[in-house]
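Box 3.1. Reading complex inputs
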Amino acid sequence: MPPAIETTDLVKEYGDLRALQELSLTVEEGEFFGLLGPNGAGKTTFINTLVGLVRKTGGDARVFGHDVEDDYRQARDAIGLAPQEFNVDRFFPIREVLEHKAGYHGVPEDEAAERADEVLKRVGIYDKRNERFDWLSGGMKRRLLLARALVTDPDLLILDEPTAGVDVQLRHDLWDLVTELNEEGTTILLTTHYIEEAERLCDRVAIMNEGRKVTVATPDDLKTRGTDTISVRLESQISAGATADLETDLGAYAHEVTTSAAGESLEVRVDDGGSTAPQLLNDLEAMGYEIVDLEISRTSLEEIFVDLTRSEDRTVTRSSASSADDGAEENGEKKRDVEREREQEGVA
Amino acid sequence: MLSVGFRALFRRELLRFIRRPKNTFMPPAITNVLYFAVFGLILGGRIDEPVEGIGYILFLVPGLVVLGTISNAFENASFSIFHGRWNEYIHETLTSPLSYAEMVVAYVGASAVRGLIVGVIIAVIGRLFVPISIEHGLFLVATMIVIASLFAGFGIIGGLVARDFDDLTVMNQFILRPLVFFGAVFYSLEMFDQAWQVQVSLLNPMVYMVDSVRYGLLGHSDMISVAPTAYAEFAPYVSLGILTLLTVVVIAVDVYLFKVGYGLTD
């Protein structure tokens, strides 16, 4: 069975801006895969390339072995997308919106109606089935996007920041639902800003930055790549002059040593706190210090994420990407304002 | 071509305008009642028969039917595409496994149906003002389907090209309507006394559409009198043939634009 997603040297250029830079990524069938990255990293561009909303500039992209351009019908049929934007048909009650979407995917009318009811119940907004999208609350809108992605019974479910701006209860409901879907065999690609979400849900995560893949690993593997901090409280104070010597005396395992203002405690940054702590204790005792207390703080995935996506040229690229995002947001607002005016003028 | 997906999109497009008669069918109905009342009843009695045996109000019917049909077909297709782009819900279609040809034919077909319904409404309104007997029924039906599809096809291009709602208004008001008004809706080419006036009019494609519908409905065609004698009697069929070809070309352009994602994808 071919991978659910396989891209090779995928490139997308917008004029001078390279949104995707030779991105090669493989997501296996049945995986729960996370895409992490700051704004402007290229996550949504990547997703939109798979579903046909963005035309790639170069490279290859396949979904279950189907080229996203040459075999676009098969590729799109396999995908259910819950995007960030509320891009839902405003003319029809949500039940009909789902029926239409299922119909476009070749589901006969009767079955489409059954499926629409089923997914509305599954995401918990069945009682709103005769409402139009604009009358739903923010959380319900999010649920509907998920329902629309599910109504075609996709083999690959793509969730583009599904929990952005939703309350804790809904976030947990969505987590439970997608976990259940994944256990039923659906491959899931999730983009998120919430590190906790990726850590909790994903089998593997790819960290992207500036259109590039920085790394792919399991959340646990990623965490081992960070540094830990060992905090030590001492019986006696360390003199100001002794701090500089400590870093040298402790050897290569101590990447950084800082002492408190009072000089009665110190923090040592090391690769693996658990295995390094005994050696640190021995070394400090050998230097004549008495240890009162010791605590190890592990690096969070969030800190690792920040480390991995921090780069020299990021300031320039990120600021331009961020401006572009702001612009898009602003345009979106303008669009909505004009749209409201148009709605008042009537419908052509 | 008639896949489940195609039928679903076609149905969705039909329902969009059928459920909003106040926005879609009432305005052309009211406008045409006014046209028939003012130009037909009030002014028409003071205007000589533009063509022998056909009173002015009867002469107006085919032109107004064409005007209503093509402007509604164009408006429906351009609005449907542009509104979908504007609110991005056209993504529901674009991310589906429908072929590009299926998408285009569904949009064009539904918009053509709206144009045809409006055309029938206008003909019925005209019938309230003047007796009408259809002279060439099959020819009339074929012509109406072709011109409704042609302008639905143009509407797709308009919807893809437009960058805001004002662009759609500009297309309708500044391109479509002038061509229609100089397209022999309100006058006959036989009323011109200068040859160049006829020649210039023949450059306007609307003239052929209005003339073809007039031939189908009333049995009169200006083309028969202005065309070279050798094929004068076939002139309406030549017009229909050329319009059909043009429609196929425009729909092919629509499919191409969908395929390359013009105005639809980044």
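In summary: Chain B has twelve helices and no strands.
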